[in-house]
Design a protein that fits this description.
- With 227 residues, the chain is α+β, with helices and mostly antiparallel strands.
- It contains three helices and 14 strands.
- Strands 3, 4, 5, 8, 10, 11 and 13 form a seven-stranded antiparallel β-sheet that branches.
- The radius of gyration is 18 Å and the shape is globular.
- The two termini are 20 Å apart.
Length: 227
Amino acid sequence: MSACTKIAASAVALAVTVTGAKAATLDFLGFTDTVFGESSVDNVAALNPIFDATYVPIAVTAAGYNASGQSITDGSYFAYLDRNQAGLGVCKVITAGNQCNPASDDNLTSGEILGLSFAQDVVVTGLSFRGESHPSDPEFAIGDLFDVSFDDGATWSSHQLVKGNLGNSVAFNSLLSAGTEMLLAYNNQQYYLSAMTVAPVPVPAAGLLLFSALGGLGLMRRRRAQA
């Protein structure tokens, strides 16, 4: 692990420790089925950002992208809220009524990327998923993977998919800076993002986070100069 990587990792841990912020659950499945209904997101003013005091208590902006693997080609696709115990996916073509056409093309599959961003720094602590056969989708098989990036696509990692309605989530401790997109991509299995948990980073702690990171970089430079 490089010195810069160690500093970044320590800074994220510091942010979580110092803030003591409680993680909030953003329940996209519940929001769709109970509050808003099925709809494309990017082109709907009421969903920019997505917010609901009960189901999505921290406002989040969602976007759908045309992609080649882990690389965004353009922004011609749409983030999509699918009902019947699904959540957020991506749709290539929508109707005048903001419905996916065809209706089966509303999960996250090959050639698509889903982007999520916040107006404030947050720490992403968990992601939950549903499968394409919702509401009776089985548990994902071992080896069913998704890809995620927390820095606008600069770095990616692959993880096992887990079914959210069984109380499962994939744990993270990843800082997502304000305005930076968390990107989700297809690996080898279609899926929906049913929910995520995030902990806000208050401004004073965010400042301490930056100060710590800069201090660490300064120390690294001094050590190099003395070598």
